[in-house]
Write the structure tokens for this entry.
Amino acid sequence: MKGHYGSVQIDASYPFASLLHYDNFVLRHGYLHLQYFNGWGETILDYNKRLPWQWRVGVMIVR
């Protein structure tokens, strides 16, 4: 069995209501989502491939 097949994923979210003051449903009830990933593949197609580190930014409706 080979070693060193770990991965790291860190997620953070922050409410848009604290950042912006617009009268829009998503901006009032949504969240800014940040994610960092470093490690081996996240899908069945990439399970044995080392992926480069990734930063992801998105919008969450529910937390």
